[in-house]
Amino acid sequence: MDRVLPGAGTIEAVLASHEGAWGAGMRVLSVRDLSPGLGQAAVLGVGTTAPDGRLSQWIVKIPSWGHRSLLDSRDSQLDRREAHFFAGNIPRLLPRGLATPPDATVVSHNGLAWIVMRDIGTALHQPWTPGAATTTALRTALLYVPGALHPDLLDTPWLERGGYAAYTHHIPAGHDNLDALTHDPQLKALFTPEQLHGLHTCLDAAEELISRAAKLPTTLVHGDLTPRNAGVDRDNALVLIDWEHVGIGPVGFDLGTFVSLYRAFGGRGELDERALLDVYGQALSDLADTDLRHSAALGFATAHLTWGLHLRLGPGLTAVRQGFLGDAPGQLASHLDDIRSGCLRALAWAPTAGVDTAGH
For residue 236, is pLDDT > 70? Predict the structure, then answer.
């Protein structure tokens, strides 16, 4: 059941009862609800003032607030993993070039973990461009470093594993949605018959794709690396938020999720996906001192063909067909454009992943 969001008085009392960079005598001046529409967490923007008059902006995140998500990840650790992440040592193991929100602190209130961190909206709200995407490809390769230097890190029990398979339970809905398109006057032109066949084939290939992905070299992954969860700061570091899906996954996966949702989340200009993959693959190979470019390409393609397709054809098309996104053409245009373009880009990577969409 959804809870009533905490107000300024509650937040002030909770922070006053814990030590943190907000300091003693802090007063809460404002609270804004920033909770994402599909997320399970409560996310609040909090403005504070110190006794000497200094103003600060904070984010207060309560992961297990109880909001139901259409994405339905079925992840038993989802409401606890980010608190484990910030309370542990992984943030301190990230190499220069990667960053998390400063002064992140985990506090407890009424049995729930609260994550309090500096507001880094300035970095997050910079427009995404192909140049910034290239920086992201380079910096994402650095996630390989913590596991390479500290192999025991990869055995941490609460890290997500198999995130590329997190939404396979949406495959039946994906098939049903694709079958229903031919009978829907508004949606029947979304894909050609050949494209529909290819998408059905990719959905059916999930088990094989997942089996292959499990055999690829692994790296620490953010697990939900999208333009909404990332920014490039003034020092050209990649700043990442929303670590609920942090885990162990195949090389290339994080870059695949970023590229998959680049346009949907406001990225400007067209990305040269293969050039970005080349940048990532070379940087990764340099860090590992072995050629991982082929493995990175397989992990990248797997992200498109599993994570990307399963979300778009399952909850994405379901939201459209059931009217959750409105029914006016103008309201649906951007969503349908993302579903179509994202699925077609996934199909373009099917040969790399060994999926024959032509049925030969």
Answer: yes
